[in-house]
Amino acid sequence: MSNLIQEFNDYRTRMNEVILSKDNLVIKRLWNLDTNTYAEGALSTKTKEMMGLVASMVLRCDDCIKYHLGKCHELGVNTAELYEIFAVANIVGGTIVIPHTRRAAEYWEELQATTA
After folding, report:
1. What is the band of 20 on the pLDDT scale with cuts at 50, 70, 90?
2. Cα 3 vs. chain centroid, distance in angstroms?
3. Are 102 and 71 in contact (CB under 8 A)?
4. In whole angstroms, what is the distance from residue 39 CA to residue 56 CA?
5. What's the whole-number average pLDDT of the chain?
6. Which among 9, 29, 80, 101 has the fewest CB atoms less than 10 Å away?
7. Ordered DSSP codes for 14-83
């Protein structure tokens, strides 16, 4: 696994453990809602992760973008689909999303390299 991916996953895991160890009921409920939102339902998990990626790009949250890229990769999103997701995000969010698209493309290339 590349350093870029490993560092992100390690940091996310470590900080999630710190946050959840404080036993805050509101945070636990919010995170539970987030988990349940992306569960299989009328929409597939894959579709929901693609939607989450678009929203994260439009909101310009690089951590969220990396998270959703990882999930999209796990769920079998291919590169052609990914670049259509990028296109939707850029149309909805405007040119301010371009730098996030660059970083997302870099992260995707790293994810693809882990399965090559």
Report:
1. very high
2. 17
3. no
4. 18
5. 97
6. 80
7. HHHHHHHHT--HHHHHHHHHHHHHTSSSSS-HHHHHHHHHHHHHHHT-HHHHHHHHHHHHHTT--HHHHH
Q: Take residue 95 and report the two structure tokens written for it.
A: 């040119």
Joined together, the tokens standing for residue 91 give: 């149309």
| Residue 42 to residues 7, 69, 84, 100, Cα–Cα distance (Å) | 34, 22, 22, 30
The helix (H) or strand (E) run that includes residue 5 is: helix 3-21
Among candidate residues 12, 72, 58, the one with its CA nearest the CA of residue 4: 12
- 63 CB neighbour count, 10 Å cutoff: 12
Q: What tokens were used for 63? A: 């951590």
Cα distance between residue 51 and residue 45, in whole Å: 10
What pLDDT band is residue 116 in, cutting at 50, 70 and 90?
A: confident
pLDDT tens profile 39-73 = 999 999 999 999 999 999 999 999 999 999 999 99
Rounded Cα–Cα distance for residues 50 and 1 (Å): 23
Under the phi-then-psi rule, with left for phi > 0, alpha for psi from -120 to 50, and beta for the rest, what region is 39?
beta
